[in-house]
Amino acid sequence: MPKSITDIREICLKYEIPVEQIKTFWEELEDGRLVTSKCSDCDNVMFPPQSYCQNCLSKDIKWIGLEGEAVVKGFTHICVLPTTFSGEEPYTIVVAEFKKHPGVRAFAWLEGIDKEDVEVGMDVKLTPKQREEGPPYYVYKPV
Amino acid sequence: MGNRVGVVASGQAEFGIRSEVDVREIAAESFVEAIGSEGNLDRGDIEFASVGSHGAGVYFEECLPAPLICEYLGLNPIGAQRVEAACATGMSAVHVIYALIKSGYIDVGMALGVEKMTEVPTLDMVDFIGRPGSYLWEFESFGPTFPGYYGIYATAHMDRFGTTEEDYARVAVKNHKYGSMNDKAFLDKEIDVETALNSDMIAYPHRLYFCCPINDGSACVVMASEDKARELSEDPVWIGGLGSGTSSVNLSNRGSFVGIESAQVAARQAYDMAGIGPEDIDVSCLHDSFTSAEIMAYEDVGFCEKGGGKELIREGQTYVGGDYPVNLCGGLKAKGHPIGATGVSMIHELNKQLKGEVKSSRQASIDNGYALAHNVGGTGHYAYVTVLER
């Protein structure tokens, strides 16, 4: 007898992720522009965008242009890749804080730089990017 | 009549690649050890089971581990639940049982943490563990892995305080040393700093030896109200303080990457409730999923000022005989980190430490009678801290 049984009921999971409440973000990104949500009541700027203000719970949200210049707060180079990213080369992820929007940060890849040159405190710019297939996204580039 | 909650019995399965047992069978190992450790305790005393598992139905096949384990161990029809708090799942199960006893709902309950992580390919596990986090805003486009999430903290800590890769290697050396003395630990070989520094890069700055392993395990703690605890145990250890917290799931919503706010909040709550401070702690289990996280944890639980963690490991203060012995069981790093079992295993280890029942080479000197367990889920998405007292 085998010591284990290989399960035969394989399932493929692909989520349909609702983005209706923040569709402006995705529409603008598709057109190559970065925007995010700002609360009309308390002026809180949020990234990622939300349809409720996390500061005052207002649902009166407007959309503002996101100026992409930012400063790196922390970084990592992913060298052992998860299965669903196995087609990629090792990649660099950073969290950087926007210069024009103090306290607002984004989590994204940093592209176009040698790994040895990445450091905390460096200037980067968040930039929209399109895929051949799939939703648009955004990456940091060195400035 | 006292109003405390006591730990009356505890047990742990051997952590490792346990491909010869399924989730019920590995749960039974820690349960049978716990029940057998106190002569007066019978499984019929247990009124409720809180089962901690992160991966049920996802990276191992069984979706309902709580009633499944109750069935296997002959505990039906007691009440049960599964709890989940990422890597802090185990200690969240302990806190639930504490609350049920403290409220008077039950007198005796058990927290059992269990995980099977080796039934799927390793890189699929890396994928599953990278998804929590914000799936849409982090994983979907950027594929972080868990060593990568903590890597963002580690690079920030290195930049701000001058913490080095050597410091991260030193923590690995310590935890492997104690893992080698623990029969229940997965990784049982001592290593040196060079071995750690020369190991493969997983996610900068985390090399293989800076990361906890993927493995299977279970741990079980039986707790009781004060009167019942005195009946069931000659020498119960008491829960003196608890604390819990959360931090944002999106890393971008955090203001600092040199400490984990949820863990700082949880530690402060636990100290306040116990009426003690960090200086009173004789021995602790801190959440060293990555060796950089252990250094941050020294600071977050107040063993030193923020940025001072590197000095503690350089001076050997977190070894037996130092000011703050940490992870004398090998920690997540060497004992292993079967996610749901880890927090329960910390309580088991500290129960034994406070009673002086571990191997003498890794036994802390118990002077004040206080121990601290710090269990972090995600990168602080959840945090649970528990103070035990004797």
From TrEMBL, chain A:
The cross-references to Pfam families, in alphabetical order and at most eight, read: OB_ChsH2_C, zf-ChsH2
The name of this protein is OB-fold domain and Zn-ribbon containing protein putative acyl-CoA-binding protein
UniProt-listed InterPro entries: ChsH2_C, ChsH2_Znr, NA-bd_OB-fold, Thioester_dehydratase-like
Instruction: Give the source lineage, highest ranks first.
Output: Archaea, Methanobacteriati, Methanobacteriota, Methanonatronarchaeia, Methanonatronarchaeales
**ChsH2 C-terminal OB-fold domain: which residues?**
63-126
Q: Which organism is it from?
A: Methanonatronarchaeum thermophilum
Q: Please state every residue range assigned to the domain named ChsH2 rubredoxin-like zinc ribbon.
A: 26-60
From TrEMBL, chain B:
Query: The Thiolase N-terminal domain covers which part of the protein?
Result: 13-227
List GO BP terms, alphabetically. isoprenoid biosynthetic process
What Pfam families does the annotation carry?
Thiolase_C_1 (PF22691), Thiolase_N (PF00108)
**UniProt xrefs under Gene3D superfamilies:** 3.40.47.10
Q: Where in the numbering of this chain does the Thiolase C-terminal domain appear?
A: 243-390
Q: What are the UniProt keywords, alphabetically?
A: Isoprene biosynthesis, Transferase
Q: Which GO terms describe its molecular function?
A: acyltransferase activity, transferring groups other than amino-acyl groups
Q: What's this protein's name?
A: Acetyl-CoA acetyltransferase
